[in-house]
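JOB MANIFEST
job_type = single_chain_structure
chain_count = 1
residues = 411
[input]
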Amino acid sequence: MILRSGGVTIALLALALIGLALGWRAHTRGRFAKLKAELNQRDTPHAALPPRPGGQDALVLERSAIEGGTVPEFLSATLLPGRGMNILQITAALPGKGIVKLLDSPSLDEAARILSGQDEDAHGAQSLKIGGAIESPWAGDLFGTASPDGLNTSWHGMSLSVPAMQRNGVAVATGGLLLASSSSAIKNNFMPDGAEAEAVYEAGDYDGHWPSTMRLTATTQLSARSIEMRVTALNTGKDPQPVGLGWRPRFALQGDRAQVTLRLPAAMREEIRDSRTGAPTGHLLPVEGTRYDFNSHTGVALGSISLDDTFAHLHQAPLDSGPIVELRDTQNDYGLRITMLSSSIKAIHVEAPADGKSILIEPRFNYDDPFGREWAQQEDTGMVTLQPGRSVQWRIRFEIFSLTAAPVNQP
């Protein structure tokens, strides 16, 4: 009896030991498997984070082509709400060429690297070289007296001090103070044939550089044939302030530059004192009969002319909604049209180097150096005086069209 009971006990102990061994083996295998999985996870690179210029995600407005490649149509617009709503890129479908990039801009990844806010991008300066920057509270160039922090100028007897750079030994502040700003609110709307995006900027007094506080609302609406843009500036402060708004897109030329034509309905252009600095003399020169006359309804070929000029005294044809600037590329059978829908747009700056592959067309409120003493007192240099609680709007329509195809609304 005792031997039989002892045998059973020994058998039970053996079974228990075997069970423990198997459990421990399974346990260690589980731990090794878990450790191996963790090591593999560490070795596997994580998916790269999307580039975020200015610390905010880019907005991409997109639509599908519906014309079957028979006429030009817009496909997308990439916006940077973290960089003052800069339009980094616009794509379009062109018959015979497929999808093309209309703006002379780098990729989003490269733009995020360039738009660092450091060194050459201090105060957002690199935004003026990429895509289409929105300019506020002035557009173009300001000149003044150099100071340790930039330059000093004055408006209605009030001193203004703004950040500036040196251009051939002269202090120049270019493109306003919105360039590196991040939005405080963003809205997206999807539409039957496109999309719309809106960004709000609580600019305040631009870090003490402007007389009163300001809120800006930038809206971009994409459809097949047009892109509508609006920038509204609201004086949220207690004092009047000057406002100048603009947009600075640099268009990529798809073919032979010489055959591209420019239509620009302006009677005058700024006279420049020094081409190295771009400082105006305060005089406007007539363009009629000169090489700067682009008033022809069908445009004038760029040829070999080099442009870096600001045009003024804009006018419109009787049936147009406002002054119209057009680029026509006969080689690729398409045109780009900008219609000024705001009467406050008083000037257009054009940069087109003779040896370049792009052309900058900048519709804006103000002349260069609008506060400068060089201008006659009776000359309206384009800055709008905005009273507290009042707003002003910069608005344009940007269109793409065929040079040979009949308009869609015609039989």
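[summary]
Residues 57-401 form a domain with the Beta-galactosidase; Chain A, domain 5 fold (CATH 2.70.98.10).
Residues 1-6, 8-13, 26-39 have pLDDT under 50 and may be disordered.
exit_status = 0
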